[in-house]
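Now for today's protein:

——
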Amino acid sequence: MGKRTDASTEAGPAELRGGWDAIREEALALRDRIRELPVATAAPAAAVRAEVERAFPLDAPMPPADLVHEAARLLERHAVHVTHPRYFGLYNPSVRDAAPLGDALAALYNPQLAVWSHAPAAAELERHVLRRLAAALGREGDSAAFTTGGAEANLTAALAALARKAPGWEQGGVRALPARPAIYASAEAHHSFVKIARIVGLGAEALREVPVDARLLMLPGALEERIRADRAQGFAPLMVVGTAGTTGAGVIDPLAALAEVAARAGAWFHVDAAYGGTAALVPRLRPTLGGIERADSVTWDAHKGLSVPMGAGMIFCRDADALRRAFAVSTTYMPSAAADEPYTATLQWSRRAIGLKVLFALAESGLAGAGDVFEHQARMGERLRERLVGAGWELLNDTPLPVVCFTHPSLRDDPRRLAAVVSEVVGRGRAWISEVVLAGRVKAVRACITSFRTEEADLEVLLEELERARAVR
């Protein structure tokens, strides 16, 4: 490789080719050996920090190939490998092969997506994929945008709800409102809404928790009663949140019934389908999202069910004017604010071209193929339930999505021992699972099929590890 003559200059063409060759080598090698790696490793923070400092002293130039190989070595040695077929954890998927190519192009061209005129191709590539996904949800014509993730998408929905349902808020803030706005979500909803209530100035008390039934679904009757009681205390219903794929148990709330309650209350109806939105691409699962087409807004994370790298959230909103009222500004340093300029309808200004990796992943397989990928995960979830029941374990959740919560008769009344079983499985490194508390009181083991590469042999390893851990006293 050519040698740089000045430490301040960029790498030369030969060195740069070496760096890209190293990326290709690491990508292909990781795919080939991922099953051989432990799903998780543990090392003291001081030891990891020391390795990082040795690998990257920052005192002299390093060839790009060395940068890639050193960083890859660290990432492989010190991580919970969420792309591992036996990572049965949170909604962090394996990554479709084409998606990182789109991410690399986004980094190379670095398009500025605040205004359409700066990045017409990138903007239209994103809009194309968003239109197709909106149609899959039965929401043709929605205003849609990519976000950093579900939390930002949910925040966007709350701000749109304030702009639409609380006239005067965008100028006078919540202090100008005659009643205190309330957000209604189930006890199993995502905790991003706690942060959202704080961020928008409502306070955590404005988040009104609604009870769930034995299946962990929000109760429409309880929602209606809570709204009625809250009105007497000076609250005004701002937003009702239905969840399509709760974090703990993957359940899908009765969306159509919640839409009815929200309409009667005059509240904005939002569906947090960050995980479950991908069911829209699976013919067998699509009916479970019935009612999502009636929502004022929907959150869907591509970096969950669509198997693309983090972060890639999406917000779909029926009311484009509400978004403009929440976000539109006029400045002298930005181009004239056309009605559809991204910075006038979203929280972000400068923004990475998030949609390229999503487009690449979907274009590689087609939308039907993306549905097949998620269908495979759902089938593996069903198979895991069957295997657990056959081995004497008890199921504690009911969902068509591949999230399995369970316990064992020998662990049901012993939370410490259940925690020890989970810790033993994770500590051995052959599989990764977690604990979860359902309905605020029932402790369970949680295993979610997050990888499209998970097969029955991987389920067999998990069962083996569970039984081994349960036998440890």
Observations:
- The chain has a mean pLDDT of 94.
